[in-house]
């Protein structure tokens, strides 16, 4: 679960950096979107690298969900009788208790995101527009409810990351008494940066700062 989570975190960082290119203007953003489909040419056919990346990410998502389900079942089997009282976690209590439901919402968000900007099924501009035009149309001020949905979903992604990255440090044996505080700060900072990075573009478009 930690390894697949790490793969997904690396993808989120790279995806966030690419999204921020929208602030450089339509030409730069469209060039970036075109580059994603032509990287590796002419050594490999068109879209080969992107397709392989999508396959790896798809497998990582499936294995991540399978790992989460398997661990939950093992935990229940290990202690079929519930604790009389639960000790509340202070730093990560809310994140811990909402990981399961947050994960489901994140999965629904991924499906919507693919239908919107990969398959163009729910995008207002459809397949005939440029990548820049599709993103701007998505978060047009008249579609403020989409922006709110996007922001809430990204905040849940950030919450999921906060607890997930911290748990990964534990699972991979990287945590010690000496670096525990630093790793907590790193997990929190990474989650905040990724969340803000993804929120920046839709909010800017909705308020007219990018058009």
From TrEMBL:
GO terms for molecular function: metal ion binding. It comes from the Bacteria. Its main location: membrane. SUPFAM superfamilies: Fumarate reductase respiratory complex transmembrane subunits. Keywords: Heme, Iron, Membrane, Metal-binding, Transmembrane, Transmembrane helix. The chain crosses the membrane at residues 49-72, 101-122, 142-162, 183-210. Pfam families: Sdh_cyt. It is found in: Membrane. Coiled coil: none annotated. This is Succinate dehydrogenase. It comes from Actinomadura macrotermitis.
């Amino acid at each position: 679960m930690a390894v697949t989570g790490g793969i997904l975190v690396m993808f989120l960082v790279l995806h966030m950096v690419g999204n921020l290119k929208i602030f450089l203007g339509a030409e730069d953003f469209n060039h970036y979107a075109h580059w994603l489909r032509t990287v590796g040419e002419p050594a490999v056919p068109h879209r080969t690298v992107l397709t392989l990346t999508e396959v790896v990410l798809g497998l990582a998502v499936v294995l991540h969900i399978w790992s989460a389900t398997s661990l939950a079942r093992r935990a229940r089997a290990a202690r079929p009788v519930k604790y009389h009282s639960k000790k509340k976690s202070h730093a990560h209590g809310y994140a811990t208790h909402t990981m399961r439901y947050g994960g489901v919402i994140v999965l629904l968000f991924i499906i919507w995101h693919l239908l919107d900007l990969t398959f163009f099924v729910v995008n207002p501009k459809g397949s005939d527009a440029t990548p820049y035009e599709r993103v701007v149309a998505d978060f047009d001020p008249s579609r403020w409810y989409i922006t709110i949905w996007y922001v809430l979903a990204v905040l849940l992604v950030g919450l999921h990351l906060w607890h997930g990255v911290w748990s990964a440090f534990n699972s991979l044996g990287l945590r010690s008494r000496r670096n525990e505080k630093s790793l907590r700060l790193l997990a929190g900072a990474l989650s905040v940066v990724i969340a803000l990075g993804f929120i920046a573009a839709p909010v800017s478009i909705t308020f007219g700062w990018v058009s």
